[in-house]
Amino acid sequence: MTVENVIWPRYLDASLTRSDGRRVSLRDAIEDPEVDEIAEAVQQIGYDAVIEHDVAHPREWGANGRVIVKGADDSSKNDLVQAVAAYIHLLRE
């Protein structure tokens, strides 16, 4: 069985609080995370990523997309989100 995890940009967004949906520490959070860089980070850590641009998180009004991570059965969602945040920091340096 293949596991699909969804990563919404809000999980990494430094402008949001934990109760608003951020899933990483403020220190690891990203300013204005984009689905394209999330997908690139997912691919760099070894998983397949599918970008869906025209989808909005249920708690948001505007569609800013999401990334579906395929084949991440060996990783918890939290570990995956943490690794993506760390890799985006490397990409932005």
From TrEMBL:
Cross-referenced InterPro entries: Signal_recog_particle_SRP19, SRP19, SRP19-like_sf, SRP19_arc-type
Ribonucleoprotein among keywords: yes
Presence of the UniProt keyword Transmembrane in the record: no
Cell compartment(s), UniProt: Cytoplasm
Gene Ontology BP annotations: SRP-dependent cotranslational protein targeting to membrane, signal sequence recognition
GO MF annotation list: 7S RNA binding
Entry keyword set: Cytoplasm, Ribonucleoprotein, RNA-binding, Signal recognition particle
Primary subcellular site in the record, as a coarse category: cytoplasm
GO cellular component: signal recognition particle
Function: Involved in targeting and insertion of nascent membrane proteins into the cytoplasmic membrane. Binds directly to 7S RNA and mediates binding of the 54 kDa subunit of the SRP.
Record text on subunit structure and interactions: Part of the signal recognition particle protein translocation system, which is composed of SRP and FtsY. Archaeal SRP consists of a 7S RNA molecule of 300 nucleotides and two protein subunits: SRP54 and SRP19.
Protein family (similarity comment): Belongs to the SRP19 family.
Protein name (record): Signal recognition particle 19 kDa protein
Encoding gene (name): srp19
